[in-house]
Amino acid sequence: MNTIYDIRQLLKRFGTFIYIGDRVADLELMEEEIRELYKSQLIDVKDYQMAMILLRQEIAIEKEKRV
User: Fold this and answer.
1) CB 3.0 to 4.6 Å from 43: which of 10, 47, 50, 60, for a disulfide?
2) Cα(61)–Cα(66) distance, rounded to whole angstroms?
3) CA torsion angle 3 66 56 18 (round to 10)
4) What is the band of 51 on the pLDDT scale with cuts at 50, 70, 90?
């Protein structure tokens, strides 16, 4: 898992499609969905950790753009 697109594809496998229209809100919702999948033991720790790193980096970048 290397990109946000990869995370979207992972979520799609579980029937989760996220599009609010606000990039940061989309990313934060994706973060919550990944957390729930991990808590439910539907994804392994490696996928969880990589997804969270990517999402947090992207959220920071998007928030920086707004300043």
Assistant:
1) 47
2) 9
3) -60
4) very high
